[in-house]
Specification:
8 strands; globular; TIM Barrel; 11 helices
């Protein structure tokens, strides 16, 4: 069975005081939680502090992005080997904000995916459609195109020990969220699309849902068979809300095991 994964993406939020207080609260709220992998992804300047504050806890630090270059004259970039050197394991790539604001296309994101795999890190590949694409019935074709950038360049095997985060762009930061049935339909399509290349890889890949996930809607989302956790934005900045989401994922996993 796939172990659920919940990632808190802090985006461009943080300060030394905020990191100290939030990590202390998260450690307290989640100290007895089992059956769910938990990651928090702070801005890069707070990664080292976050890692140190999480020592001897079940929570791991993750990164919000990575560069494609290993070393050299690339001012402002952070390499996969640097992230690995400070203890980062999970790295978010392809987030819609990177695609939109930084004009990162599918092939560039696939290159990041390959760089992370080569370094032994776990890519968290964000995919999803805009509101216009959703209204036009293009959800599956958009997701397939974004997946194919990796499948066609690195092969299905690249999704071994990798994560996919389905984040409909129209639901990110809007307060809107796909219904559990809508999300499950897309997650099932994603798993099936990878299964058409390699069924064993598809069976083990973690597929998260993201897009206005909060402490009110998480539990119902996690009851769906192909939803393996969540990539959480705003709610990850609130320790109690984030803890509710993590506990819901752990509880859903336990219930699925009981039903097997």
């Amino acid at each position: 069975m796939r172990c659920p994964l919940v990632i808190g993406n802090w985006k461009l939020n943080g300060s030394v005081q905020m990191v100290n207080e939030l990590i202390a609260s998260l450690r307290n709220e989640l100290k007895n939680v089992m059956g769910c992998n938990i990651i928090v992804a702070p801005p890069a300047v707070y990664l080292e502090r976050t890692k140190n504050l999480l020592t001897d806890s079940a929570i791991l630090p993750g990164a919000q992005d990575v560069g494609v270059n290993a070393t050299g004259a690339y001012t402002g970039e952070i390499s996969a080997t640097m992230l690995k050197d400070i203890g980062v394991k999970y790295v978010i790539i392809g987030h819609s904000e990177r695609r939109s604001y930084h004009h990162e296309d599918d092939l560039f994101i696939a290159k990041k995916f390959g760089v992370l795999k080569e370094a032994g890190l776990i890519p968290v590949l964000c995919i999803g459609e805009t509101e216009t694409e959703n209204a036009a019935g293009k959800t599956e074709s958009v997701c397939a195109r974004q997946l194919n950038a990796v499948l066609n360049t690195l092969g299905a095997v690249a999704f071994t020990d990798a994560v996919i985060a389905y984040e409909p762009v129209w639901a990110i930061g809007t307060g809107k969220s796909a219904t559990p049935a809508q999300a499950q339909k897309v997650h099932q399509f994603i798993r099936g699309h990878i299964a058409s290349r390699d069924a064993a890889v598809a069976a083990q890949v973690i597929i998260q849902y993201g897009g206005s996930v909060n402490d009110s809607n998480a539990a119902e989302l996690f009851t769906q068979p192909d939803i393996d956790g969540a990539l959480v934005g705003g709610a990850s900045l609130k320790a109690q809300a984030f803890a509710v989401i993590v506990k819901a994922a752990a509880g859903a996993a336990a219930n699925k095991c009981e039903g097997m």
